[in-house]
Amino acid sequence: MENKFIIVVVVALFIIALMQLMKVYDLAAKIRGEKSEEKVTRGENIFNANMLIVFMLTYFGFIIWLIFKYGMNGGLFDAASVHGQEIDSLLLFNWWVILPVFFLTNGVLFVFSWKYYYRQERKALYFPHDNRLELIWTIVPAVALSAIVIYGLKTWNDIMFNDQEGAKVVEVYGFQFGWWTRYSGDDNVLGKADYKLITASNPLGVITSENIQNSYNYLDGEVEKINLLLSESKNDEGEYFLSANNVDSLIGRMERFKRQKYRIKSAIDRGDQNDSVYKSANDDVLVQELHLIKDQPYAMKFRSKDVIHCPWVPHLRMQINAVPGMETSFNFTPTTTTQEMRAKPEVIEHYRVINEIHNERLKKLGEKEEKVEFNYLLMCNKICGAAHSNMKMDVVIETAEEFNSWIAEKQTYAQKASE
Ligand SMILES: [Cu+2]
Question: Does 57 share its domain with 117?
């Protein structure tokens, strides 16, 4: 807080000093008898006008270079999902509306400044109002913007409200700092979860009778530990060696553990091992990578443990916030497997360049050569804390057979519990 205040004061003083300096400079110029604004020569005006054209051409050239260098979709490869292709077409449509207007308005801005540079003998034309002009610059933008909005809305509705039949339910769970993926198993239903059950062995707080028992054991264990510590910290007269503060905070901790257990007992525990709430989690599988089947519709669910995260897979054009305390969802269908993506000429070329640069640097460091390959990646796109940049998870898009043999090796909640 104090630091911030000092920074504000320093910036304010710097601005004041700068203003004073400019005043001094102005006064000095006046004393030296230098020419004022009115005495700028025609030659200087023409020079400035020409420089405006030079600026415009550089500016336009840079934009055109950017378009050729990165393409119309910002240097990403073709979208690898159904809705991603829709988003790309929408963006392309926007570009086709925006770019001509951009070149036209900026062109007019600079060309007019160049053409009508100041000439002393010329008088400006008085042109206060024209209905036709007003009509044109109201109707043309209205039509263009309506087209963009209607097309955008249609795409949005297609993407957000398509309850695809046969969609597989998969959950992505963000935490500081990483991801969990939970597959819903054969019943295609994710087992319910509750934050009160979150422990090291149950990071998502999934409700199963096993997990509830584990939570009880954990909480009982903590209470016991504190009890032991307290009883060992007493002398023969029953007085604590610990400071009163220490004792209070230990007792407070113990009370919290007891309350936690009470809450689980009263709100989550159904008492019945065969309750359906427990059962839906039994076939769920928890992993830390995301495997998806090509051409399979997915209903993705997103949750967060702590702060807002933002799962983002740029090649799928998928991005959505994961918000603590609520579930967000997104439907999509991947269309290109990782292997198919790796075989695309533009991807091969892109990774040839990356490998070249990468290995050149490794060589300089005296390290062994490496080969980097294309991989889909799920990243966090919300600055969520110190290790935000570590929030990456591999995404593999594959065939149904490959997926089935992969998931067959993973343990379900029920399998883990019966161990
Ligand atoms: Cu994050």
Answer: yes
